[in-house]
Amino acid sequence: MRLPRVRSLPFALLVASVLHALPSTSAAQDADDIRDAVNEMRARGCGGAPGRNTRLRANRHVNAMAEALARGARLKQVVSDENYRALRSASIHISRAVDEAAVKRTLRAQFCAEAVDPDFEHIGVARRGLEAWVVVTKAFDAPAVRDAPEISRRMLMAVNAARSKARRCGSDPAPAAGPVRLSGVLERAARAHAADVANQGRMSHIGSDGSTPSQRATRANYAWRAVGENVAAGQTTPEAAVQSWLESPGHCTNLMGARFTEMGIAYAVDLESPDGIYWVQLLATPR
Asked: Number of C-alpha atoms within 13 angstroms, CB side, residue 63?
């Protein structure tokens, strides 16, 4: 059975153009003033959303994205330029940015949700005369290799918390199941497959050598009675990967499987690949 693919969060793209009457004499807002206006709105909150105490930080790569938009490019075309990978992004085009009041009116009307979104962290601004382009992003921040032990611990906690509660996997009931424990042997097998799928740039239960999950467990010298595997791509935290599996019926059934007592978890990061990060969870019961 082909399991549904779990991918990274999609880009959030918003492009708005708002026209204001052009006074005969006026000066356009510069980039710093526009950035400050966005952060002021972020701090105060708007549209019923509370303010945030974290400022959007200027970033040269995101500024380059805004400059590309000013030259006529589309956000999806430029969001990964300048050696910067964005997990989420949004943009706005302000026409006739004649004064501070006009800029703030446009921001409140068209960019409120994005300005106060806690996920966004970077901002870039480009200005051409009386027009301005603003881009906000959340950077793709994958865990480092050295973080693997901590990531495994967090994954184990998230998996066992999920298994402790009865739920539905699609239309099928999934009773609560006992906890699983980490297996170093299964982790080695999972790590090899994670590196393999990252190199391929696609999620798959079949290795580049044609191997299956059970064959990889056997190859790692794991004597098993039952084997199951979950894969995911794009999530930057173990908790997000677990949540994606719970939302996919086939993955959820594996994760909740009462027959499994051990688990190996691994991830591999390849920023040149389509999804950036790939997760493998190898579940098994020893003989």
From this structure: 9
